[in-house]
Amino acid sequence: MILQSAIVPAILASAIWGAFALWFQASRAGWARVLLPLGWLAVATAALIGLARGHHLPAWLFCAALLVLLAWWWLGVRPSNERQWMPEVARLTQGAVDGDIVTLHNVRNFAWRSATDYDARWETRVYRLSCLRSVDLVLSYWGRPAIAHAMVSFGFDGGQYVVFSVEIRRKVDDVFSEIGGFFRRYELAVLASTEEDSLRVRTNVRGEDSYLYRVRMPEGAARSLFLSYVDMATRLAAKPRFYNTLTANCTTIVYQLAKRIVPGLPMDYRLLLSGYLPEYLYRLGALEGAGSVAAYRRAGRYTERARATLDPTRYSHNIRVGVPGVAAKARVDPS
Fold it and tell me: The dihedral of CA 52, 56, 61, 64: what is its sign?
């Protein structure tokens, strides 16, 4: 009786999961994108009807065959680095470490005039670990307050910054779907870029609302975190991996990297609701220079300063003016 009562939810769960998986994996297959999920649901419906009429054996056989078929097909869905990518993710960052020197290849430094008008530039840049001075968390919002894209910017002597961003590696004509992110719809990328590119495009081109927070880290942790990003980016270039809305996104990967450096970091719902990461960092005592989360948010919001900056070379300077924990800066210079 227990086994019989379990078969109905098993068939329903497998049917729904399989339909979603077929829908997202067949996104470019024309009518097949509709027919395959419908066919899958029709077979599941037939099994449930048979079960309701007392034909338990066919229903059991269907359930077993369904799970085997799903597993066989799903294991064959593999990530790849060889697809028709959008220009902004056409290349993957790779790094080489030689003592104090880190060389990053394919650092993105696009000059954006609009979402479709830009100069594509991929550069090789060299950084000295001994010159690493700061770590900033950047959150960029495009709608809902609970969801933001999280990036980490590392600051070096001389006003040099490099941003690491965990991205969906979008293919040409891809449209993002949170649900699709559960079904191996997108590959994962860890991209290094300049702030004039990845931060400026969000505020000045896409119209997003952005915030910067100076993060306090233990001795040596910033260096370890930087090297962790370099390592992850390089490994993804050699062995692709799928993005996952829950387990492999911009904030969960930040946590997975950070906990290697600061053992015992507590899990928290704000690691999924990335828009509330400042509250999480405040709880950990990782923010400097202000007495409350509200004060951090007010001072860390740089959207207007960014949009007023006409000269991209002044961007990094201007967005940090007045940010808690950052050394006092001069006024915003839009020129």
Answer: positive
